[in-house]
## 1
Amino acid sequence: MVVQQHRSKGGAVTAAVVAGLIATSSGCSGGGAVAEDQQGGDPLVTVRGAADALVAAGSSKARTSMVMATGGTRVTIRGEGAYDFRKRMGQLKVLLPPDPNGVDKHRPITELLAPGALYMKNRGAGVPADKWVRIDTTTLDDGNLVTGGATDPLAAAELLRGAKEATYVGRADLAGTAVRHYRGVTDIARAARLAAPHARGALAAAAKGFSKDAVPFDAYLDDEGRLRKVRHRFDFANAGRTVAVASTTLLYAFGVPVEVRLPAGRDIYAGKIQA
């Protein structure tokens, strides 16, 4: 498994851009309005609406990166795939890091993301190669924000609904796309209360499982209010150790066709997964 499995516990909003400048008879250029236009309106309103903007966009390709650090050890897990924000389903190919001796013995893990569930193939010792493992994300201490080695892209946006602090950092260029950079802190418990119904169960589990509800973030949104990149920094306890996790999600190619087929019941492994 990517990390030790936790024990079981159980709008389209676009940036508010100022449409014009207020001119006065004295020739004032309306500098305050220009400043607001550059930052895209109220930062909290903007980042809190990221999930709704993604649903309005429909779909996108995605790249993920998760860096875990504990006791001087640093591990990076990468993923790539696509997500349908309206159907709330996605597929990622997750690459585990090489063994400490430098030999890469891990096969890529295929992950299917769905409301309340994570399906994984090529995961877990003792699981037949043709079988999938299904995990109820509402029973995980972290709500699958970190367990799968990639944060569900829509869940990453839903987490921003709980933002309690947000500031506009400035304009940036992200792979040729002009974006606005926001930095702040979100609250997992608040996000769970405000999230769309499909995301509430997993986020509520995370709110109970993490030692701290406060999660620092950096979010990058384009001029249409779509989340292009988000980086969350989590801290959680795993096997008696504190693990620092930086999870980054990059979204691009909006509107791309996405087809996700969940495995049939007969293809899901029902046996015990070896540690």
Note: Residues 1-37 have pLDDT under 50 and may be disordered.
## 2
Amino acid sequence: MATEPRTNALSWDECFMRIARTMAERSKDPSTQVGAVIATRDNVVVGIGYNGFPRGIDADKFPWEREGELHETKYAYICHAEENAIYNANADTHECKIYSTLFPCNECTKALIQKGITEVIYEKDLYHNTPACIAARNMLDAAGITYRQYICDWE
């Protein structure tokens, strides 16, 4: 009797999105937790990240507010998950793909383009109609970078 290989192994999309979700759990942001994973075309992880303050910044000494003057909100200080995945990359990201639990903003999209990312796979698109996400899609289209939503089927 021959043994057959498993047919229910995780797909690469599911595997990397699960890792991105786990990374999101590292975030101390009380309102939005985002995780990201950069992988090569051969499905080797080269970078991971989550949204949080830069290294060495005490998260308890800076604001987590969403409204107010810029310097009084988290937005002046937070590094996004996609940025951190790039900063943490241990290999060249040219022709890699990124998995993110949230569609990237325009600032992260610029960094992804500059680092040679060729595909964006995201889980949620909560800010679809905001200027930042409209600009992100415009840049992704202009750069020829494919993007698609990953629909979770394990929950």
Note: Helices lie at 12-24, 81-87, 106-114, 131-143.
